[in-house]
Amino acid sequence: MRPSGHRLGEAGAKLAGIGRRRYIPSMSGTFEDGRTAPAEGLAADLSNAPFPYLEGALANPAFHPELILFVLKNVHVTPGLLKRIASSREWLKTYEVRSAIVLHPKTPRVIAMNLVSHLWWRDLVRVVDRPALAPPMKRAAERILAIRVQEMATGERITLARIASRGIFHVLRVDPNPMVIRALLQNPKLLEEDAVAIAAGRRTQSDILQVIADDPRWSPRPAVRKALARHPATPSQVALRMIRHLTRRDLREVSASPLVPGLVRVAIGRILQENGSGDGRRGKDGKRRGKRRRASSTC
Hints:
mainly alpha; rod-shaped
């Protein structure tokens, strides 16, 4: 569920269209201009006004919380002004204001760190992906996400798995739901080592191993095939399919594992025996090579 927190009220929604207008400066755009402007004028000016006007606007009796978002969009906002905004409990009641402050690159780190734990998981992902934010902020967001995953609904975990950063892969890799793992395998940030870690995990169940075996991106990888072949929970038909593509060296390693089912070990033995008898051998790519016959000479 989305966190509790007020969205822009009706008055703020009406002012949103006004706030998109380009600021037309007065003679000075001074503190006094901002302090005395009517509410409608503030909404029109705040997004592009100079810094003195912003300071005056915050002291304006006509200023109300819905206008804070316009202030936060202004390129002239300073860390000091952000600190002033964050010190007001009234202004922080609005969720969008809290998230905008955390995501603002000029927000003092102490303030952002205090607010980041109040963000919804989608905004935590935005914190991680925002290039302008400091690494400690990103790591804090990842730690919070890793904890929140346990409480998220299946649909939310699936969505998160598709877009997550590597900092929370260690949590998503052990998710028991095959749909979450399928989404994680589609994540562009996932590396081969992550796919192997899932396939080799002691707690990985057969339905998840089947998902990995059916994945067109990862199932052709030799390291993934090897991990699938040696996992005791891999469905037999999958393991038998994987060993057909392994090198002799990998076959011996898989066969030597005490956890490999007897059926797979026997099949590996037959492949090795067949190759050793001269009927064929496997190259580095795991494909069988036919043995060349020596041409016979006639007298």
